[in-house]
Amino acid sequence: MIQWLKDRHNITSNRLHRDFSDGFLMGQILKRILPDHVELNNYPRRNGFKSKLYNWETINKNMLVKLQMKLSKNVMEKLASSRQDTIDVVLYKLMTVEKEMYENIKKYAAQESMHCIHNDIHCDVVSKESDMDVIVQAPSEMISYLTYAEVKTDLKKSCKSLCLVQEKSANLENQRKLMDECINTLCSQIAEMCNSF
């Protein structure tokens, strides 16, 4: 686990229970795992027990629940009060979840992804059957699969709306042409009636 913290998240510490007590370092790790879902300013460095506990409650509510790692009030209190071995259990679980996420990404990449290169843009198309938040490679950045799926859904809705607007526009254009023809016909009939008097 210490090696995972060092290699994967650039965190070195001999006193994990103290360094993680305010939740700040946990926020940094979560930012690396789910970059689109973590705002580091929500988890500032804290000194007092109540402030540290507040950070852990926020992390638990906003992030750990999404990773199916919900912590009990008792565990959060132990973390905030720097109890030894409590952070070890939480970090081990997080390490396991992160490894599972990356294994799933590799599995999906091997089984269901298609690679396309078009005008120097590389993209991976990932199957939408997944209900977990995996990472999708997009041009020059990483985005979560949930964000990708939401944007794709919004794009489909926008395309449908655009098609409806185009159909209505075409209908209005046809009606305008018919009205122009009617007006021209009426004008020519009026001109003929005026000429006959």
Describe this structure as you would to a colleague.
- With 197 residues, the protein is mainly alpha-helical.
- The protein folds into two domains: 105 residues, Actin-binding Protein, T-fimbrin, domain 1 (Orthogonal Bundle); 40 residues, no CATH class.
- It is 63% helix and 9% strand.
- The protein has seven helices and four strands; from the N terminus they run H-H-H-H-H-H-E-E-E-E-H.
- It has a two-stranded antiparallel ribbon. Strands 3-4 form a two-stranded antiparallel sheet.
- Strand 3 and strand 4 form a beta hairpin.
- It is rod-shaped, with a radius of gyration of 30 Å.
- The N and C termini lie far apart (103 Å).
- 19% of the residues are buried.
Notable characteristics:
197 residues; Actin-binding Protein, T-fimbrin, domain 1; 2 domains; two-stranded antiparallel sheet; 7 helices; 9% strand
Question: In a few lines, what is going on in this structure?
Answer:
With 197 residues, this protein is mainly alpha-helical.
Shape: rod-shaped
What is the mean pLDDT?
76
Number of domains: 2
Task: Indicate the low-confidence ranges by residue numbers.
Answer: 112-133, 136-140
Largest sheet: 2 strands, antiparallel
CATH architectural arrangement of the largest domain? Orthogonal Bundle
Supply the number of helical segments.
7
Q: How do the strands of the widest beta sheet line up side by side?
A: 1-2
By helix and strand content, what is the structural category? mainly alpha
As a percent range, the share of helical residues equals 55-70%
Total strands: 4
- Residues in β-strands, percent: 5-15%
According to CATH, what is the class of the largest domain? Mainly Alpha
**CATH topology value of the largest domain:** Actin-binding Protein, T-fimbrin, domain 1
Tell me the series of helices and strands, N- to C-terminal: HHHHHHEEEEH
Calculate Rg over CA atoms: 30 Å
